[in-house]
Design goal:
This protein is of the alpha+beta class. It contains 16 helices and 41 strands. The chain has seven domains: 87 residues, no CATH class; 73 residues, no CATH class; 111 residues, Alpha-Beta Plaits (2-Layer Sandwich), CATH 3.30.70.2120; 103 residues; 117 residues, no CATH class; 81 residues, no CATH class; 98 residues. The strands form twelve sheets. Strands 3-24-5-13-21 form a five-stranded antiparallel β-sheet. Strand 17 and strand 18 form a beta hairpin.
Length: 789
């Protein structure tokens, strides 16, 4: 009989096999195997713990990176980034203010009723003036009246609406015609003409056609009777029967721009036509021949106009005058229809000056009431015309937007700093990590970022006004323990808003220089593009030297046939054989036997240092391309006429070489873009040179503002390839990958070991059971023998 069987004696493996342990031996075999495996699992458990710890660090580094990215984004508009239209530079943000005035004493409409103005960062600081003479309107025509919109019109034929032909059927109603026109005004070939029905009463309906855009007339024509039947046109669309609104362009005067045709002159606005001239003198009209016209101090403005019109000599020159009313004021206008003429004072009078008589203002016209091409960076929305009212538009720096950007920077900096402070929490007594500190406590990468950013905030910008070089001078300071209630906010930034506001209003340029990368060049053809964290400020600046342009890579004129001899019409049509020197090496040619291909081979065979030649082809022909790696290409002493026929020319958009401070190899070139290498302190500086010729001694200076320095630090540390934060994360992810592979390998070995141990102990139990059975058999035999004897 088996004794001692319990659930502790049973174990079930993965295949479902049941093993009974300890029955014969009395040993807890399963517990023994589990204990052995548990001991063997200690290295696995250690690796598991390391993976968990690394994952916690990866999570925290990801949070650190998120905070750093937020700070970089907040700085992206504060460091002076170069962009199209200055969209990336908050210090270029503009706000506009419009005011109105009149000189005739009338009350002008509110500026907002006349015009709307929006400014992009591309707008320039300053002011502009407008006078709106006419708003743009859309062409609108109407049909005759119809008693119903649902009765058949009994009209049939085709109508050309814009460039689309629509067919009208005899069963079509007024609503059907409307819908056909609107259906044609869809898709990529939309007609630009919309139709609607205006219902005056239940028995009076009108079809109205409207051009979708202002400033130009619609085109609706036919060759039949549809338009006349609709009452739109009686001459097939040449004219329209009822024009509700003519198409007209927006018209306005801008910034006093004058019409220099010299056929139109006008005075400033005068309050009355009876104003006396106040001086006597002579005006000389000159249209190639001169004529002197006398005026008297007692003449009025109206007298002057009448006298000009009555003068036979001026009539012969087609010069006349008129008084034009503008609002409640008046202008004298003098016009000519013949040759251009000028007006000058030749006597003692001052009529032209006193009355502001000069060329008439230039009338600007636009098809739309939305105008974007008059003032750079400004979009004008014209609402209402009001001749005689001057709208002044002032463009200023948008201080509120700039202040918000600075506030966003401070908030992002503080978010990052609080995160780092949390990770680095220590106990007051030991200075060691506290129970609340993060898993990145003391991490070198994190603390290096903290220190570098804090140094920039504290040290500030070199090379600028000493009164505006550090953030504290504009009201942005570090919080101390006495400033905060939460120790996690120690060394965050705090803003004194009144001090910042005062600095923005009174010292805007100083604040801008405190933040941005400020670049200047003694040559206006050198334009800044970008810089990096390696671009170092130098109090003495740097000297940029521009080498040759387009002299290292040159092309000949294009020919039709590269295999034709050089004297052939399909080649260069050279007439005389000879020789020339290319960079001092003699090249001999025969125009009757050489081709473009053999000429290139001769240049290459001459083994001129750094010079190679090739034949380049495109769809229309071929040309000779000669390239030098260092020395400018020169062609001299041609005894024939081939060099003249080749007309070798370099690319004017390719700068061959440049350097900083005379250091060879300190600048690489790509077209006209120059990038400074690591051989000088200006490493990473990228500029474009727009000049036409070589030049030396260009003085280049720049300052690195707080925003630029911090942005560059963050760009470096956040770099997806070489950044230290990514390096930390990648390192731990790599460790975890190796650890997980090792854990899997060790787990597999432990599973094999566990199965082996169980098998051995089972075999032992089986052997013991066999011995027990044998012992019992012997015992029974012995007992039986003794009993029988």
């Amino acid at each position: 009989m088996v004794e001692g069987l319990s659930f502790n004696n049973l174990s079930v493996d993965e295949s479902g096999r049941v093993t009974v342990s300890g029955i014969s031996s009395g040993i807890d075999l399963k517990g023994t195997v589990d204990a052995i495996i548990a001991a063997k699992r200690i290295p696995v458990d250690q690796l598991d713990a390391r993976v968990v710890a690394n994952q916690e660090k990866i999570t925290e580094f990801t949070s650190l990176r998120t905070a750093a990215v937020s700070l970089r984004n907040a700085l992206s508009s504060l460091y002076g980034a170069v962009s199209v239209g200055n969209t990336s530079d908050v210090f270029k943000a503009k706000s506009t203010f419009a005011t109105v005035s009149r000189v005739d004493g009338a009350t002008p409409s509110a500026a907002g009723n006349l015009i709307g103005v929006s400014a992009s960062n591309a707008a320039l600081l300053g002011s502009h003036e407008l006078e709106i003479k006419q708003v743009a309107t859309a062409h609108k025509i109407a049909s005759q009246s119809f008693a119903s919109t649902s009765s058949a019109l009994s009209l049939s034929g085709t109508v050309d609406v814009g460039s689309t032909t629509i067919t009208v059927q005899s069963t079509d109603t007024l609503s059907d015609v409307r819908d056909r026109i609107n259906n044609a005004n869809t898709g990529s070939s939309a007609t630009g003409i919309s139709a609607s029905i205006v219902t005056v009463s239940s028995s009076e309906h009108y079809l109205v056609l409207t051009k979708d855009t202002t400033g130009t007339s619609m085109s609706v024509t036919d060759s039949g009777t549809v338009l006349s039947g609709l009452g739109l046109s009686s001459d097939n669309g040449t004219t329209y029967t009822t024009v509700l609104q003519a198409a007209q362009k927006a018209q306005f005067y801008a910034d006093g721009i004058l019409d220099k045709s010299n056929l139109l002159y006008e005075s400033a606005v005068q309050t009355s036509t009876s104003t006396q001239l106040g001086s006597s003198g002579t005006i000389r009209f000159d249209d190639g021949t001169t004529y002197d016209f006398a005026y008297s101090s007692t003449d009025t403005l109206q007298d002057l106009a009448d006298n000009i019109n009555a003068d036979a000599s001026l009539q012969a020159k087609n010069i006349s005058a008129s008084i034009v009313q503008e609002g409640s004021g008046y202008r004298l206008k003098i016009t000519g229809s013949g040759s251009a003429f000028t007006m000058t004072e030749t006597g003692a009078g001052s009529l032209l000056t006193d009355f502001g008589i000069t060329n008439e203002r230039k009338l600007l016209e636009r098809d739309s009431n939305t105008v974007t091409d008059v003032f750079a960076g400004l979009t004008l929305s014209i609402f209402q015309a009001e001749p005689g009212t001057t709208v002044k538009i002032d463009i200023e720096a948008d201080l509120s937007t700039i202040k918000q950007a600075i506030t966003d920077f401070v908030d992002a900096y503080n978010e990052l700093r609080v995160f780092i402070n949390t990770e680095n929490l220590t106990t007051d007594t030991t200075g060691l990590a506290s129970a609340e500190s993060g898993v990145l406590f003391g991490n070198t990468t994190m603390n290096d970022l903290r220190q570098r950013l804090a140094n920039v905030a504290g040290i500030g910008t070199q090379g600028v006004d000493a009164d505006f070089s550090v953030l504290a001078q504009i009201g942005i300071t570090f919080a101390t323990t006495s400033d905060v209630t939460d120790d996690l906010e120690v060394n965050t930034l705090q803003i004194d808003e009144s001090k910042l506001d005062e600095a923005l209003i009174n010292n805007f340029d100083d604040i801008r220089r405190m933040f941005v990368f400020e670049f200047t060049s003694s040559d206006p053809n050198v334009v800044y593009l970008s810089s990096t964290g390696q671009t170092t400020y130098n109090a003495s600046g740097y000297t940029l030297n521009i080498g040759t342009i387009g002299q290292l890579d040159q092309d000949s004129t294009e020919i039709t046939d590269k295999d034709a001899t050089l004297d052939h019409a399909d080649s260069f049509a050279a007439t005389t054989s000879g020789q020339f020197s290319l960079n001092g090496t003699l090249i001999t040619y025969d125009v009757t036997t050489d081709t473009l291909v053999t000429l290139a081979s001769k240049i290459n065979d001459a083994a001129i240092s750094g010079v190679t030649a090739s034949v380049l082809e495109d769809g229309s022909g071929a040309h000779l391309n000669v390239v030098s790696t260092s020395t400018p290409l020169t062609y001299t002493g041609d005894t024939g006429d081939l060099v003249a026929a080749l007309t070798m020319a370099g690319d004017p958009d390719q700068i061959d070489s440049a350097d900083i401070d005379g250091v060879s190899g300190s600048v690489t070139t790509s077209g006209r873009v120059l990038t400074v290498t690591d051989q000088t302190g200006a490493e990473g500086l990228k500029v474009i040179y727009n000049g036409a010729a070589s030049v030396t001694g260009i003085q280049v200076d720049f300052t690195l503002g707080v925003g630029a320095q911090m942005f560059n630090i963050l760009e470096t540390i956040l770099d997806e390839t070489d950044g230290s934060l990514q390096g930390e994360i990648a390192s731990m992810e790599g460790q975890n990958l190796l650890a997980e592979e090792r854990i899997e390998e060790m787990e597999n070995r432990l599973a094999v070991l566990e199965a082996t141990l169980l098998a051995k102990f089972t075999a032992m139990e089986t052997a013991l059971a066999t011995l027990d059975s044998l012992s019992e058999s012997i015992t029974r035999i012995t007992d039986g023998w003794f009993q029988s004897n």
